[in-house]
Amino acid sequence: MLPVVAGQRRLWLVFWRKKDRRRPARGTTDRHALVPIPLTGGVLSGQVRDQQGGALAGTEVSVMDPADRRAVHVETDPFGRFAASLMPGRYRVRVEAGGYQQVTDVVEVSWGEHADMGHIVLGEDPALRPPRPGVFVIDGDHSSVRFVARHIGMSKVYGRFNRFQGQIRIAEPFEESSVDVVIDAASVDTNVAARDTHLRSADFLDVERFPELRFSSVRFVAHGGNRWTVDGDLTLHGLTSDVSLDTTFLGTAEWNGDRVGAVATTQLHREHYTLNWQQTIAKGLPVVGSTIQIQLDVQAIRQS
């Protein structure tokens, strides 16, 4: 047997430690899975793509057991991938993303194994394609402009504007479409008369000096499927600031005319519009939060 010199011994220790680091973590059986495989179950994974091969981030993946109970609900990561640990058994996997047709498949998860669904391709949903070009007028009877604010950091106050009007111009290409909306500031309504009077005062909206809120879009940005960002300028309290609306297109329908629908959300900071009135309570807690959540639910009727 050849003697092991000090240098050789050090080399062997380095090699052994590298091998040891490649061992599966305690409580797992496979070091190659996207997540550790539990001793009592297996792992399910896959990657969701569109028909052009692009990864679909934020896709919802629901895994249902034989009793049709949801065992797992996850969203894909920025690369369209998902992974989940499951007990052994047969599962129904439902994959869905806005603007795409739902895909359902059945998979078997085995003990100590990695069930890879591979690439799951979602096709475009024809019902959610952008409408043909034209001008649409917002239907105030079937639309809403709502907001949510924090009160003393504990509860939420919900309100709305009851009077507004606007136009949506659909262009070709769709990215060149535009939206213009005018809101009557005095129509603010939180279902509490004293609070609404205060909101109309110079402390907040100052409706006598600034009777309208105006939004005009400058850009439509596609994010895949029926999800868009509508960038624009909001004029409120005499000041204009840029706003991005996270928008979901809901499709078209025929009912008393050709209609389109969409929902959108954004967040405003009161300080950007010099709505700086503030009162604090004990421990310096503000009575009204500095950020306001905006929720839009829009239905519009084709005019041309």
From TrEMBL:
Gene3D superfamilies: Carboxypeptidase-like, regulatory domain (2.60.40.1120), Lipid/polyisoprenoid-binding, YceI-like (2.40.128.110). Signal peptide: none annotated. Residues 135-301 form the Lipid/polyisoprenoid-binding YceI-like domain. This is YceI family protein. Pfam families: CarboxypepD_reg, YceI. SMART domains: YceI (SM00867). Belongs to the UPF0312 family.
